[in-house]
Give the backbone structure.
Amino acid sequence: MSYARQILDTYPRTLDADDNLLAVAIDAISDCAQACQADTDADLSEQNLAEMVRCIRLCLDCTDICAAAGAVLSRLAEYDPAVTRPLLESCIAICHSCGEECERHAAHMEHCRICAEACRRCEQACRDLLETLK
Amino acid sequence: MSYARQILDTYPRTLDADDNLLAVAIDAISDCAQACQADTDADLSEQNLAEMVRCIRLCLDCTDICAAAGAVLSRLAEYDPAVTRPLLESCIAICHSCGEECERHAAHMEHCRICAEACRRCEQACRDLLETLK
Amino acid sequence: MSYARQILDTYPRTLDADDNLLAVAIDAISDCAQACQADTDADLSEQNLAEMVRCIRLCLDCTDICAAAGAVLSRLAEYDPAVTRPLLESCIAICHSCGEECERHAAHMEHCRICAEACRRCEQACRDLLETLK
Amino acid sequence: MSYARQILDTYPRTLDADDNLLAVAIDAISDCAQACQADTDADLSEQNLAEMVRCIRLCLDCTDICAAAGAVLSRLAEYDPAVTRPLLESCIAICHSCGEECERHAAHMEHCRICAEACRRCEQACRDLLETLK
């Protein structure tokens, strides 16, 4: 269990979500941000750069949106659905696009295969959480 | 005109938005992120901290969401409405809440008065841009 | 093993560091950034806010510096000691200060105890990595 | 004058620096982060991508380090030279490298010419500030 998850259990919150779904989402978002950051650099090391441009751009967007979503979900004590719900929707959309693009390269680029997995897991965790948020 | 705006004029993009609205939004988002970051620290210097907690939390969320929105809007060459639209909606919602909370303190805290102005300007710029995005 | 660590093993790099020390540092930095982000919000939920202000500020700095250090270390293919070394030194210094401050509250605040542990582990991992970097 | 600079004038701080040098540095850092973010995307739109890879990587590092430096400088009330000085040194080093690389492309890429200018201005502003910090 991550340090962040341990800390989140120690104080009150207004975000009324299933404990486990929330914790899984926070960790999946952090993992995905890291994976996309690393995949950006790995993509830049490839020979066929022109084919990787879309992947790089989606990874950059995914890194930044995951960073914001993770930060907002980690501040549990002031939950506003008008802020959090569209942010999760944006996160789901970029994880979906980025995961699909990485999947296209997965067969011949191990780093994209791993990043696709991180994106899909993050997309699913955010969907599961979003469904339970009122 | 900011360096970022000058750069954005030098290369092609898929985001089909009014040049001026886009540039205004990018600059307003950056200004708002900076203002909220500074206001967080100023709030923490106040005597009546208990009254400032909600303001601090909203400023932290506003900083992080503006950072993501500004980054995504600055990568113009790969526009996806499913990502950008909800991100702008989230940004509008947090700027609205943060601006209202800062406004409550504006009469006796100059830093909150300034931050409220930055939030309102950012909210409006994002609304104007969102309306023109298909 | 994190997705990021798996990806970092799949492509060449110029940063000539022990594989394991590097991987441990990247993961410890990410954990510490998340922990400090969560601890900031937990601190803001405490009754004795005045006593927590220094802790909140150090956690905010630690979050931001760890984010930069983690990002730079994840881009292995373009290593510049003039950039990376002082960035790690700054990261070590803030982890040390933040860890000490959290430690002061650890006996009666579980969230600060956990955050102190994350900071100390990150400080040590960055020290170990810095020693091996030429 | 930016909102952030206006806010910084409204509350006490421990960072004992010349007001103007500090304000200039904060604004130059923010401008540089934005410019590097935009230049990354512009670089990715170029035909000769292989020649731009180093520029992209340096812009990514510069964006992330400037973001951390700007955040730390904006929290004036808890200044620690052991944290801030090496962070500024790292920022100076990456602005120098990134500015030199952008300069190489400046003659035939307007976006790199503009980004080089933002990097040089930021490098100088950070040097000026660092000299005055005890």
